[in-house]
Amino acid sequence: MKAHRPEKRLERGEYLSRARSMAPRGQDLPQTKLLDLDIVSIRSAAKQRENLRKHIRDNLSNEALAKQYGVHVRTIEKCLAYETGSHVV
Q1: Structural domain boundaries, residue 85
Q2: Closest C-alpha among 74, 54, 52 to residue 62
Q3: pTM for the predicted model, two decimal places
Q4: pLDDT confidence of residue 13
């Protein structure tokens, strides 16, 4: 005779939430290529990149340079294309 076990079935949602929380993740998986520290480093580098892009856009773009020197954007463009000030090295 089989021993009778009381039926204690989980609801579907509870089962799925428990299954996800108990499943191996990240470095615990055998196919993992990146360590947790690698991921932190990548995210930090991406944040730095975004900060540099913002700095360049705000301070070094043609528009920012024109505003800084009090001239039109086209004046900056001409200067960079050596249409203006071609005698200056």
Answers
A1: 34-89
A2: 74
A3: 0.61
A4: 84
